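Field guide to reading this record: the first block holds the primary sequence, the second block holds the structure written as discrete tokens, and the final block holds curator observations. Each block starts with its own label. This record concerns Biogenesis of lysosome-related organelles complex 1 subunit 5, catalogued under organism Capitella teleta.

BLOCK 1 — SEQUENCE
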Amino acid sequence: MMTSPAIFKDVDQIHARLFDHRPVIQGEINYFIKEFEEKRKNREIERLERGLDFTSESNVGLIPDCVHKMDEGLPKLSSQLTTCLAMCNLILEREEEEQKESWLKEQRAKRLEDWRHFMDNMCQRSAQLDREVKEESQKVLDYYKDIEEKLFSSTPKPSSPNRV
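BLOCK 2 — STRUCTURE
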């Protein structure tokens, strides 16, 4: 059987292996330092210096030059854009007028077609009514002729004036 101090010693070793990350972290730190200082040497510093030089040149020469050129060019660009916008609006207005005219022509043609259809329909109805009126008139005439014939056939014929 193990004694208490031996158990404590084993537990301490297990705890150190599980939860003490100092040796691993120390190894990673040493690897990072070796990688950064020995292999890369001064590349990052040189890159940073070049970036700083470019930024300084831009601040001193490039940016003021760009601002000056923009001050000169922007009013001209603005006037050209205004002219372009006016021309685009004019083109749009013309297109809208053409579309409006074509729409009006289409509507006019549609109304003419509707009117022609309406007039054809009215002519057909009028002709039908004329036929019906003619038929009814003929029926009435036939009726009165028939009545007249019946009336003449049923009335006594006048006797001769000599017989009295």
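BLOCK 3 — OBSERVATIONS
The mean pLDDT is 86.
Residues 43-154 form the longest helix (112 residues).
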